[in-house]
Each structure stands twice: as structure tokens, then as C-alpha cells.
Write a structure and sequence with these properties.
Blueprint lengths: L5 H9 L5 E3 L2 E3 L9 H13 L6 H4 E3 L6 E3 L8 H18 L8 H20 L3 H15 L3 E4 L22 E6 L2 E12 L6 E4 L14 E6 L5 E5 L22 E12 L3 E4 L5 H37 L8 H23 L2 E2 L5 E2 L2 H11 L2 H13 L1 H4 L6 H4 L5 H8 L6 H15 L14 H11 L2 H12 L4
Parallel strand pairs: 1-10, 5-8
Antiparallel strand pairs: 1-2, 3-4, 6-7, 7-11, 8-9, 9-12, 10-11, 13-14
Helix pairs in contact: 1-2, 4-7, 4-8, 5-6, 5-7, 7-8, 7-9, 7-10, 7-14, 8-9, 8-10, 9-15, 10-14, 13-14
């Protein structure tokens, strides 16, 4: 069996070369440092789930390559059910952590996209990218690797193509091709879960032409590869991570900038090197499945917000029945993004390589919902929770523990039948989910909603719909 434990996963991270920075500090151990240990904990819970009798069927699967039992996030998705399980796993991970676990998400999608595209490239050019990827996948399944996915470049001036940027490093590119590999340089930004990853998948972030063929690069690198510097981005409540106590949960996510400084990638880890014709396919396949499944992410966190809101009502001394309309609307929002995503998967089809890809127009429609409905869910959570959640007036854990006035604070914070500490913990959770570092990238995570609308517009057969209306109305002109 190719299943590993939480302990083995954490040890694999401890063995990696330190190359992650935050607030100007080199983090020597991502598993224990306050800025990164929470995202490691979040991902570790995915490994725990593989050994949970209630969750193991969702979190493990049989490998299409070996027939062995593997972690599902290491597997190929060749059937509609495989992609639906991707959605279900994402929603469940939010139930377990309350936050994004990007290392169990984007890299999983990337390897499936490259399984299809490498097959296409090999057929036209006689390359051997597909076999290289297969060999890497066998290793990933055996080792239970967590793979982050790096799609977005810094991009620079949005009005210019990569080759015309005044700052060349604004986009990742091939600097040199060697007999044994390639040299890459440039920045990938806003990459999720890197601190908790063993490997990083690199994909082009746009559809390129011949003038930009050096930017048509897809590969996978160890997170600690020589020449890569990782800078963790700052979120509003990050400094709270350095404090003890329950002001934030023991889970979390990190976002990072990846700075590639003439990094050598050996051939066996390269799956596209200049075949610009296929960059559009990468974007199309990736966005279809990612935007279908991301609806499950916001649904999962919405489920936690719904629970937090209901418990806060009780902790405030009220019955949650008073807020039944609001709670129901939260549930409707959650089920909308989840079910539209599943619908996109069900309407999809199998690629000749065997990978299942979702229906584009429905998937991108889901992204528009993902960029709107969760904010309404967050607002309702704040509304039910009251000012203790949203106004920023709740004293800190350190104040509540203060010998001089802590007991006084806890005494006046008690409202309902539960303890003051329980009320504070739930208020902090709701604050974290709706205002703080627990907020996933609803608006731009997985791509901008305006980009999704462009795809919906392109796939909508407007003239065909006009014909329906004309025929029914009996219009002949």
C-alpha cells in the first residue's frame, strides 16, 4: 500500500532544505514555525483521514497505474466519479480544517491536465513527456507527495505580452535548453500551500504564441530545489499566529511568491519546453476542472460558518430558530456552488488520454457564483454572530488570561448557557472565517470572475438561442 501517515509526511518536510521566508526571516522548520505550522497541520489532517474508517473511502483510491491503494490526491481522474470525489474531498477538508489546503488541490489538478496535454504533444512532436510524467506519478503515489500548483505569473504590465515586459522576471521562462534539462527564471505568485508541499507543479499561465514560446514551460520541481526562494505573503491576522492561545485556530493556509533564480530542472521533470501551441489547452483543461471543484471549497467553509453562526446564536443567549431564514440562505448558497460544480463535472467528457474534464461553460458559471455567494454567506454569519464577531471589539486571548482583569472580562462576556470561553472561541472562529486569514480566495482564487464571464460568453450559442425564440414566436424575417 502506498499510504503514508501524518508522521511520515511531517518528517519528509523536516528533511527539506530551508528556503521559505516570512517577515524577512528564514524559516528553518516549516512544521514548527508559527508562520507555517498551521498550514502543515491542515494538510496533515488529510493524511489522518486516510486512516479514518469514516473517511478512508473518500481520501484513498486504487491507482490506475499500479492497482495499489493510494492517497486520492496523488491519483489520476479518469471517470466522472473521480472528479466528483475531488469536489467531495475539498468540501470535507474544509470541514476538518476550516481553511484551504492548496497542496492537496492544485497540484492534483495539474498532474491530470499534464497527463492529457503531454499525450497530445507527444503525438504531434514525438516527444517523451508522457512517459516522464508517468514515472514521476509512480514516485508521487509511492511517497504520498503533497504537490502545490504554480500557475499565476507576476505578469507585470497586463497590457503587454510576456516577451514585451520591461521586467523580464515578471513571467517564468526558459533561459536555456541543455541536453540534460532546462534553466528557468522568473516569478510565480500567490501560490497556495507551498510551505506544506513536497513538490511544486509549474504550468504556463496563459495561451502563448511563437514569440512567447520560451514561456511555454511545464515541469515539476522539489519545493526545496536549489535556486528557488519562497516568500510567504502577509495576511491581515498573520502576526496573531505568533501568539499563544485561541485567537486563531490551529489550522490555516499560506500564500507565497516563488522566485526562480536560474533554476536547473532535469529532463525527467520537464513536460513542456516551448510547445506554445498547447498552452491554451493547459489553461482550458485546468480551469474547467478547477472551477467546477472550487465550488466545493467555498461550500465546505460555508458549512463551518453556518455551524459557527448557529452556535454563536446560542452562546449569545438566543435560539438559532430566530435566524432560521438566514441560516437557510447560507445553506442554499453552499449547495449552489457545490451542485453547479458537480453539474459541470457530470456534463463533462473524457479526453482521449483517459482524463475526465468538466463542461467549460458550467464550470466557469460556477466561478462567477464562487466570486459572489460566499460573501453573502459571510455577511449572514456576521449578522447572526453580532458585534462580538464583526466590529473588532473582542479582547485578545492574552487580555482574557490577564491576572488583574481577565476573570472580570470573562464574567461579563458570558451570555447564554455556555461558558464565556466557548463564546469567545466561536466568535474568534467566525471572525477568522469572515474577515481574517481563514478567508479563501473567493473572488480571485482559481482565476478572476471577469475571465470566467468571458468564457461563458464565448461558449454561449447566442444565435442558436435567437433561433429558438424566433421559431416559437413565428418570426420569419
Amino acid at each position: 500500500m502506498a499510504l503514508i501517515t501524518r508522521e511520515k509526511y511531517i518528517q519528509s518536510l523536516k528533511r527539506m532544505r530551508p528556503n521559505v521566508y516570512k517577515f524577512g526571516e528564514l524559516i528553518t522548520d516549516v512544521t514548527t514555525h508559527p508562520a507555517t505550522r498551521r498550514t502543515v497541520e491542515s494538510h496533515a489532517r488529510g493524511f489522518d483521514a486516510a486512516y479514518d474508517s469514516k473517511l478512508e473511502e473518500l481520501f484513498t483510491t486504487k491507482s490506475y497505474l499500479t492497482g495499489d491503494r493510494i492517497h486520492r490526491f496523488n491519483g489520476l481522474m479518469k471517470k466522472m466519479e473521480d472528479v466528483i470525489h475531488n469536489s467531495k474531498l475539498k468540501r470535507t477538508m474544509y470541514h476538518l480544517t476550516g481553511t484551504c489546503t492548496g497542496g492537496l488541490c492544485v497540484g492534483w489538478n495539474a498532474q491530470n491536465v499534464l497527463w492529457a496535454v503531454s499525450n497530445e504533444i507527444d503525438k504531434e512532436y514525438g516527444t517523451c513527456y508522457h512517459q516522464r510524467l508517468k514515472r514521476w506519478l509512480l514516485l508521487a503515489e509511492e511517497e504520498g507527495w503533497v504537490a502545490a500548483g504554480a500557475l499565476t505569473d507576476a505578469k507585470g504590465d497586463r497590457s503587454k505580452k510576456p516577451a514585451n515586459q520591461p521586467v523580464p522576471d515578471a513571467n517564468l521562462r526558459i533561459m536555456e535548453k541543455r541536453e540534460d534539462g532546462i534553466i528557468i527564471r522568473g516569478a510565480k505568485i500567490m501560490i497556495c500551500g507551498v510551505a506544506a508541499a513536497n513538490e511544486i507543479f509549474i504550468l504556463p499561465s496563459g495561451a502563448y504564441d511563437e514569440a512567447n514560446k520560451n514561456y511555454a514551460v511545464a515541469c515539476v520541481v522539489p519545493r526545496d530545489i536549489e535556486g528557488l526562494t519562497i516568500v510567504e505573503a502577509r495576511r491581515p491576522s498573520d502576526r496573531r499566529e505568533y501568539e499563544e492561545g485561541f485567537d486563531i485556530p490551529e489550522t490555516g493556509i499560506t500564500q507565497a511568491y516563488l522566485l526562480f533564480n536560474n533554476v536547473f530542472v532535469p529532463n525527467e521533470r520537464v513536460f513542456m519546453a516551448g510547445e506554445y501551441k498547447y498552452t491554451g489547452n493547459i489553461i482550458s483543461y485546468f480551469s474547467a476542472n478547477h472551477r467546477a471543484c472550487i465550488g466545493a471549497c467555498v461550500a465546505g467553509q460555508g458549512d463551518v460558518m453556518l455551524g459557527a453562526a448557529a452556535m454563536l446564536a446560542r452562546a449569545n443567549g438566543l435560539s438559532e430558530k430566530i435566524f432560521s431564514d438566514k441560516l437557510t440562505q447560507m445553506a442554499v448558497n453552499n449547495e449552489t456552488t457545490f451542485s453547479v460544480g458537480v453539474g459541470a463535472i457530470a456534463l463533462g467528457k473524457q479526453h482521449p488520454s483517459g482524463i475526465w474534464f468538466s463542461d467549460p461553460i458550467t464550470a466557469h458559471t460556477n466561478k462567477v457564483h464562487v466570486a459572489t455567494l460566499p460573501y453573502e454567506t459571510k455577511r449572514l454569519c456576521q449578522e447572526i454572530g453580532g458585534g462580538i464577531v464583526e466590529t473588532g471589539c473582542l479582547p485578545s486571548y492574552l487580555d482574557l488570561q490577564n491576572e488583574e482583569y481577565g476573570d472580570y472580562l470573562l464574567n461579563v462576556l458570558k451570555a447564554g448557557s455556555v461558558s464565556a470561553e466557548t463564546r469567545v472561541r466561536m466568535a474568534r472562529l467566525a471572525e477568522w472565517l469572515t474577515l481574517g486569514a481563514g478567508v479563501p480566495g473567493c473572488m480571485h482564487g482559481g482565476g478572476a470572475p471577469d475571465g470566467a464571464k468571458i468564457v461563458v460568453e464565448a461558449y454561449t450559442p447566442l444565435e442558436e438561442y435567437i433561433d429558438y425564440a424566433r421559431r416559437i414566436a413565428g418570426v420569419t424575417e
